[in-house]
Queue: 4 jobs
Job 1
Amino acid sequence: MNAQALKVVEVGWLDARETLTAVELSHACGLTAAELDELVEYGVLTPLPQRPSERVFSAECVVPLRTAGRLRHDFDLDLFAVAILLGYLNRIDELEREVKSLRAHLPGHPPHPHRGEGPEPWREPHG
C-alpha cells in the first residue's frame, strides 16, 4: 500500500478491497505486530491466503480493530478480552448488513435511517 493509500486509511475513507501488510495494519490500528499475531492465533483476525510468505489482511478489518483498540485502552482490557470483543463487533457488523439487505427486499418499507454509533441519547422530557 502506498503512502497516499495510508493517508486514506487515516481519514477513514477505506476501500475494503485494499490489502494491508501486518506492519501497515499495525500502524493503522495502533496495535503491535505481536498483538496482531495473537489475534490471529485466537482466530478473530484472519490473514488473506494470497501471499503465504507475508501476512496480508483485508482493509475491512481496520475499523473493527481500531474500535477494539480504543475500547481496550478506555477500559484497560487484556488482549483476550479484545479478541472476544472483536468477534462480537464483527458479528454485529455482519448482522447489520443482513438486516439492511432484508429491509431492501421488503415492499413498501423505506430504508431504516442510520442512527450512528451507539444508542440514542437520553433527552429530558419538556412539558
Job 2
Amino acid sequence: MLRIQDLRIDPMSLGKEKLLVDIAPKYEYKDKVRTENVVGYKYVVALPEHGLEKINVAIDGRPLLDKPEHFEPVEFDGLEISAYQINGQIQITGKAKGIRLLKGEMKA
C-alpha cells in the first residue's frame, strides 16, 4: 500500500521566493525519543506565493547560515519536499543538501 510519506512533492510548487525567517536545531531521535544530540538544523522559510505559510527544511551537519534578523531570500540545493501524517493531520516538510542567501554566496 502506498503511504503519504512515500510521495514527493515538486519543490517548484512552493513558489519562486523562499524567505528565511528562523533557524532551529534538529535533534536525533532514538526509539521515538528525542536525545540532546544535534544532528543538523531546520531552516524555517516563509512562502510568499502561499500567503507566507512556513515550511521547515532540514539540513544535516553544522549550521550553514546565521539566524536572520529580517526575512532573507534563500535558495536550497537538492531540495526535496514530502508529506507525513501526525495525529490525523497532513504535514509538509523538506530536506536539502545546502542553502544559500540569494544576495551572497553559498556556504557549505
Job 3
Amino acid sequence: MDKKGDQNLREFTRIPINVKVVVKTEESSFNATKTVDLSMKGVSLVADHLLPVDTKCAVSILLGNGDLGITIDVKGTVRRSVESGMAIEFTEIDLDSYEYLQNLLMHNSRTVHDIVEEEIHSHVGLKRRV
C-alpha cells in the first residue's frame, strides 16, 4: 500500500503536535487541555469544555510566547464530540494563517515532505481542487 493509502484516504496528513489552542463560540471561550493532532483540515483536541456536534466556532492556534508568537486563526465546525475530546473541521482561514499552518505541518510532519506538499497543492485553500 502506498503512503497515501496508509492514511485511510484522508485528504491531509495529520501530525501529532501539542500546541496551545483557544476555542471561542458566541457563548464561551476556553483553552484546550491538549491537542491530539492537527492537519490542514482540522484539529483534534482534549478540553474540559466540550461543544456539541455542528457547533460553529473560532479556533486560535498559538505558536511561540505571548505577543512574540504567531497566531493561526480559523473558523470551524465541531464534527466529533465525545468524552475523550472533540474534532473541529476548519471551514475558513485567511491567507496568512493558511501559510503559517501549511509551514507548521510541512516542518513537523513525519511523512515525506513531498506527500504533504502534494496534498496542499491538490487543494485550493481548504477545498479539493476540481
Job 4
Amino acid sequence: MAVLDTASAGQVFGPYEVAIDPNRAEAYASAVGGSESPRYEDGLPPVALVAAGLTKLIDELGLAGGTVHLSQEAEFLRKVRAGEPISAKAELKANSVRRGSRFATLFVEYRDADGRLVATSSSTVMVPA
C-alpha cells in the first residue's frame, strides 16, 4: 500500500536533505540543456533543487511505476550554491481518486541551514489507484 492511499491533506513529509555537490550540478545542467546550458558559476541550476527534493519525496511516498508528473510550479527566492545544505519539507495539499487514478498535489518548502526560505514548489502527480 502506497503512503498516498491513507494520507490526507495537511500531512507533512520530510524534512529531506537535498544538498547537490558541484559535479552533480554540472552534470544536471549538461543533461537538461546540452551545449546551450548556461553557466551557473557557484549556483545550482534552479530546477535541480526541485528535482532532488521531489525524488526523495517520491521515494518516501512509495510511488510505483505508472506515476505521471502532471504539473510543476516553482519559485526561487535566491540562488542556491552547489554543496549548500538545503532541507526540503513537503505538505500534501490535495489527494483524491477519480476514474481509477489518484491525483495528489504536494507543496514543498526549501530552506537553508539558517532556516531561511530559498525556494518553493508545487507538484501534482497522477498515480494508478
